[in-house]
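Quick start: read one record
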Amino acid sequence: MFLFVSALEEHVEECLAVGHDHGGATSSHHEDRGGTAAGDREDAPAAVPFEPGDHALLIVRALRLAHDHGRQQTAIVDLLHLLADYQQASSGRGELAEQKGASYKQLRYLAALADIPPIEAYELGKRIPMSQSMCHHLISTLREGGQAA
């Protein structure tokens, strides 16, 4: 729940700063769900908004988020702590997965494994933002018996 509230606060602040008009039926901000862009495959999976960059900073951000909310001892905090042993890729598919946002399908599966509501997994994926590689690491850890709760 804390992720939803803090994400909502960030969204409202961002909208006020940019001056988004939410009065219309749709806006470009809500239409962009990580779908296709010019030149992308037409069947590309929907994913969290993601800007490629320094992946190590995303891991630090996720761990800082876990530390900041650590007193609450929620499944989300425990899940974020599983990123502490994440190994950054040095080449190949791993590097490619670090440059793309986690798909909503991945996050839904992660939610099922971690026994959290899917909406919380989606909000977490957007808040960090979570890469495909980070999500894969969490899924693999949970499937191998790692504990998120």
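Residues 54-149 form one domain.
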